[in-house]
């Protein structure tokens, strides 16, 4: 089944695609805004291509100890705690091994 645009000769297989076409081409509605600049787009794919092509891989959270950067604050926190602060909180009761995370100690016990 084809969905035809009444304003031009374009046709689509999905009604949602026709709606996006009408809003973007004929009504000039640009719902997708870049958070890094003032560019706007009619479709999410256009915004995605723009960000990848113009802004590259954006990483907002940079480690102050090394050159690594992360897209999420929680990942940066985990990196700093695990790599730079080497807080060895979890001790093995059978040997002298210490670990920064409980899951690593549990893994140690299973091996």
TrEMBL record:
UniProt KW keywords: Metal-binding, Nucleus, Repeat, Zinc, Zinc-finger
GO molecular function terms attached to this record: zinc ion binding
InterPro entries registered for this protein in UniProt: Zinc_finger, Znf_C2H2_sf, Znf_C2H2_type
Superkingdom of the source species: Eukaryota
Subcellular location(s) of the protein: Nucleus
A GO-annotated cellular component: nucleus
SMART domains: ZnF_C2H2
Major place of residence: nucleus
SUPFAM superfamilies noted in UniProt: beta-beta-alpha zinc fingers
Start and end residues of each C2H2-type domain: 3-31, 32-55, 61-84
The keyword Phosphoprotein belongs to this UniProt entry's keyword annotation: no
GO terms (BP aspect): regulation of gene expression
Entries under Pfam families matching the protein: zf-C2H2, zf-C2H2_4
PANTHER family: GASTRULA ZINC FINGER PROTEIN XLCGF49.1-LIKE-RELATED (PTHR16515:SF49), PR DOMAIN ZINC FINGER PROTEIN (PTHR16515)
Name this polypeptide is given: C2H2-type domain-containing protein
Provenance organism: Lepeophtheirus salmonis (Salmon louse)
């Amino acid at each position: 089944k084809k969905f035809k645009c009444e304003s031009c000769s374009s046709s689509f297989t999905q009604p949602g695609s026709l709606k996006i076409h009408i809003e973007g081409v004929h009504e000039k509605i640009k719902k997708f805004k870049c958070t890094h600049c003032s560019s706007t787009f009619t479709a999410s794919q256009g915004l995605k291509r723009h960000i990848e092509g113009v802004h590259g891989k954006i990483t907002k959270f940079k480690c102050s100890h090394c050159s690594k950067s992360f897209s999420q604050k929680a990942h940066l926190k985990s990196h700093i705690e695990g790599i730079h602060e080497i807080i060895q909180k979890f001790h093995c009761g059978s040997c002298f091994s210490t670990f920064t995370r409980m899951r690593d100690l549990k893994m140690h016990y299973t091996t």
